[in-house]
Amino acid sequence: MNHLEENHEDELSLFSPPPANTGIQRREWIEFRPTNQISADAPLDFSIPSQSAAYMDLKRSSLKVKLRLLKADGTSVAKDTNVALVNLSLQALFSEVECSLQQTPVAQMGSNYPFKAYIDTLLETGASDKVLLDSQLFKRDTAGHLDDANVQGGANQGLYRRSLYTREGRILEMEGPLHLDVFRQHRLLLNGIPLTLKLWPSKNAFRLMSSDDDAAYRVQILDAAFKVCLQTPNAGVLMAHSKLLGDATAMYPFVTSHFKTASVSKGEYGFIENNLFQGDVPSQLIVALVSSEAFSGSYKRSPFNFQGFDCNFLGLYVDGQSYPSQPLQPNFAGRNYVDAYRTLATFRDDVDVSLLDYAAERRLSTGNQIRDAPAGERDRPDVRQVSQSDARGSISTRLATMNNREVERALRDQHVRAICADELVRPQRPQTYVVNTDPCSRPGTHWTVFRFPLQGPPEFFDSLGNRPGDYHRRFEEVLGPTYLYTPDAVQPEDSNTCGAYCIHFVRERHGSRSFQEILNDFSTVDLRDNDRKVKKFIRGRIGTTRRGWSAKAVRTIANDGK
After folding, report:
1. CB 459 within 8 A of CB 482
2. What order do you get walking across the sheet with 311-318 strand by strand?
3. Helix 498-510 / helix 527-538 crossing angle, nearest 10 deg
4. Rounded Cα distance, 322 and 341, in Å
5. Which residues, listed in sequence order, are joined to residue 189 by a DSSP beta bridge?
6. By three-state DSSP, how is residue 433 classified?
7. What is the pLDDT along the chain (562 residues), one digit of tens a residue?
8. What is the C-alpha to C-alpha distance for residues 294 and 304, in angstroms, rounded to an integer?
């Protein structure tokens, strides 16, 4: 028996009028000013009274703010003042937003509101949302330079573009939605329900960026208004709802999100959290890593610089089962992280973060999908039963464990400098540098050696066996058309001993051993043994093993720029 009902698309409905929404008679936006006086450290309080006939549309409501930037002495900033607002400036103004309906709290995010707003914006908007983004002063920071706080002469073009809106004491006006869970649901709020909001200000060091050592700039909010969207239903709908309320309860299903923060101490390269969730297991998990200085607020750090910190393992286990089926194991140093990148598609198909941006900025490390949720439907609640389970999260990293001072201290007899990638220039010979593959605005990932002897071709030593152009094109430009390099890896990808390999290479090279002889100290097969060996080398107990090294150990090449 055929149970299918015949139908056709609207393009063939030539004799039927289009449906009309007659349930809503009028839609308007009413501005409500704060009930308290606007001051530097006080929260903004809004009290929206109950409406007699109109319903509140929270999803279409928005916050409007006027502000300007001031110096420490209270005067307006000049044209060339080195200060600008951080990205997504409207949302970064407030550290916490409280919302109550009929004096019942429905939104309490703690002091993590800016991060929720930024993550929502990053994962749920695209290039087509230009009006929504620009009105909140969302100007993308330059990939790889999010922590470049030099407004006038730095490489962060997004920071510079934002500074144009506030220079010379200009008044900036912004408007955008509140990123509260209850504001994301589509159902209208019944008449007769009052709404209260309290917005706590962020620290100036959090919402502003400046490379000045004595930065004390501040934001002055001149005016604020909450624009409530009111929709008035027709009389029939009002009467029907009134009757139904006598026997039933109005339902407002929406997806709630919770933030959990944890600190990983410096020097620790693993993190395990048991009993990760209190109560129900969520449908999705977003993991972001940010430096503690930026998280707390610093004029010289972007709070939204979600870095990878060379995380090489991320696992989530619920009742002993891994989600996804295999833990994510990105390798940022080796440019292998597509599995982690593709998790962004669990939010929407057109997330405006390219693979190159993901590598350069590492904005979000992953988005683990625990239970099925169609892409683009995060606002729709999953009404299936959610179990209370034992959940455990695990993160491990491989970092360049030595900082520049430690490297220079170990090589003080060789008078070698340890520098960032963007500090490298072609030097006067002879000269040797230990160079990190990250720019100065980043925490540092991997150490390499650039050696420029008095005579002969330059030398590039990389314990991971990568070519200089794999990191930066400028590395090849500094080396010139002909140079020596290491063709094979001697260090395991998940190891953090790159600094030790560089120290050993520099010491031995300054001791008149050849490039080839130093490479012969290590195997290209048993890389774990190389790690144990290099630690002994650093302690002065040098042993030599020459097994398994490729015959192409040293090659002089012509740099073709590819």
Report:
1. no
2. 270-274, 391-397, 311-318, 321-322
3. 60
4. 18
5. 56
6. strand
7. 556 677 778 888 888 888 888 899 999 999 999 999 999 889 999 999 999 899 999 999 999 999 999 999 999 999 889 999 999 999 999 999 999 999 999 987 788 999 999 999 988 887 788 899 999 999 999 888 899 999 988 999 999 999 999 999 999 999 999 999 999 999 999 999 999 999 999 999 999 999 999 999 999 999 999 999 999 999 999 999 999 999 999 999 988 888 888 887 765 666 778 778 777 788 888 888 888 899 999 999 999 998 877 777 888 888 778 877 788 888 776 677 888 888 887 777 777 777 777 766 545 644 445 544 444 445 555 444 445 556 666 666 544 456 777 788 888 888 899 999 989 998 999 999 999 998 877 667 889 999 999 999 999 999 999 999 989 988 999 999 999 999 999 998 877 788 889 999 999 999 889 999 999 999 998 998 898 888 777 665 333 333 333 323 333 333 333 3
8. 8
User: With left for phi above 0 and alpha for psi between -120 and 50, is residue 12 left, alpha or beta?
Assistant: alpha
H or E element, residue 314:
strand 311-318
Q: Tell me the torsion sign for CA atoms 357, 363, 366, 367.
A: negative
Tokens linked to 148:
């470049």
- Distance set, CA 277 to CA 111, 314, 380, 478, 543 (Å): 19, 16, 21, 50, 50
Arch. (CATH architecture) of 404-558:
3-Layer(aba) Sandwich (3.40)
E strand or H helix at 209? strand 208-209
Of residues 123, 90, 94, 89, the one with CA closest to residue 111:
94
Residue with token string 């060996």: 533
Helical residues (DSSP H) of 223-329, grouped into ranges: 235-244, 292-296
Could you tell me how far CA 280 lies from the centroid of its own chain?
26
CB 312 within 8 A of CB 398: yes
Assigned token pair, 541 = 């107990």
Alpha-carbon span 167 to 83, nearest angstrom: 9
Handedness of CA 482, 484, 488, 494 (dihedral sign): negative
> How far is 153 from 155, CA to CA, in rounded Å?
7
User: What three-state secondary structure class fits 223?
Assistant: strand
Q: Which residue in the block uniquely carries the two structure tokens 């997330």?
A: 351
**Cα separation, 454 vs 415, whole angstroms:** 16
Cα distance between residue 476 and residue 561, in whole Å:
8
Those residues with Cβ within 8 angstroms of residue 36's Cβ, 6 or more apart along the chain or in another chain: 42, 43, 44, 45
Rounded to the nearest 5 degrees, what angle is found at the Cα of 495, between the Cα atoms of 494 and 500? 155
On whether the CB atoms of residues 65 and 173 are closer than 8 A, the answer is yes
Contact 408, 417 (CB under 8 A): yes
In the chain, residues under CATH classification 3.90.249.10 are 23-237
* CATH code that applies to domain 23-237: 3.90.249.10
Tokens 């006939």 belong to which residue? 53
Residues of the chain with CATH 3.40.395.10: 404-558
pTM of this prediction? Answer: 0.70
